[in-house]
Design a protein that fits this description.
By secondary structure, the chain is an alpha/beta fold. The chain has one domain: Alanine racemase (TIM Barrel), CATH 3.20.20. It contains 9 helices and 8 strands. The protein has an 8-stranded parallel sheet. Helix 4 links the parallel strand 3 and strand 4. The chain is globular and about 45 Å long. It starts with a helix and ends in a 6-residue tail after the last helix.
Length: 233
């Protein structure tokens, strides 16, 4: 398996999906998801031109932290983060794309203030209302309170939304969920809230990223299609 060839193929598919939606493919970020991926294969992805990487766990990233020194590389946390790991996450990552509660946002803000480091965040939305997934419920009081609290979270920059829709074998079945997230993003953006930017819409993974792009995704999170299937536990 050639990781470089996989990346070229994915970029071509991104361009095709963007063209179908009359969008500029340069406005869509390709993130390599490196959960359980060994450093040698991550090095190949970097050599092939990728610069945005997503990790699921703080602890796992600590074993790969040397990669954060690669010129131009950016590491983002995309997995669930416990509040007691907030300080570790702020130290390790440039962004946390999976903020799922106001309590976590406040913990990250406090850690950022203590470390003197601003951090970008995305608000994770439980777009399918699944009990197995974390995230803000669309229209919930906690989501509203978090948006309103943004001016007080001075060490955080809210840049947009992220979601993982329910899994379907047919990617077309995920389209309504992607559309719902885009509509939520648009509603929040229209309010022009202080200290809240909605420039990022992170949605779409290896099996459904083309549909996500057609529905407005600005960042696709690709693991399997770059690195191959993850080993079974």
């Amino acid at each position: 398996m050639s990781i470089a060839r996989n990346i070229t193929s994915i970029r071509e598919r991104i361009a095709q999906a963007a063209a179908q939606a009359r969008r500029d493919p340069s406005q869509i970020t390709l993130m390599a998801v490196t959960k359980t991926v060994d450093p040698a294969r991550i090095r190949e992805a970097y050599a092939a031109g990728l610069r945005i990487f997503g990790e699921n766990r703080v602890q796992e990233f600590e074993g790969k932290s040397a990669f954060s020194d690669y010129a131009g590389a950016e590491w983002r946390l995309i997995g669930h983060l416990q509040t007691n790991k907030a300080a570790d996450a702020v130290r390790a990552f440039s962004a946390v794309d999976s903020v799922d509660s106001l309590r976590l946002a406040r913990k990250l803000n406090a850690a950022g203030e203590k470390l003197g480091k601003k951090i970008h965040i995305l608000l994770e939305i439980n777009i399918g209302g699944e009990s197995s997934k974390s995230g803000f419920v669309p229209g919930s009081q906690e989501l509203e309170e978090t948006l309103v609290a943004a001016p007080q979270l001075q060490w955080l920059t809210i840049r947009g939304l992220m979601a993982i829709p329910p899994f379907f074998e047919d990617p077309e079945q995920a389209r309504p969920y992607f559309r719902k997230l885009r509509q939520l993003r648009d509603q929040i953006a229209a309010r022009q809230l202080t200290a809240v930017s909605m420039e990022v819409l992170s949605m779409g993974m290896s099996h459904d990223f083309e549909v996500a792009i057609q529905e407005g995704s600005t960042c696709v999170r690709i693991g399997t299609a770059i690195f191959g299937a993850r080993p079974k536990p």
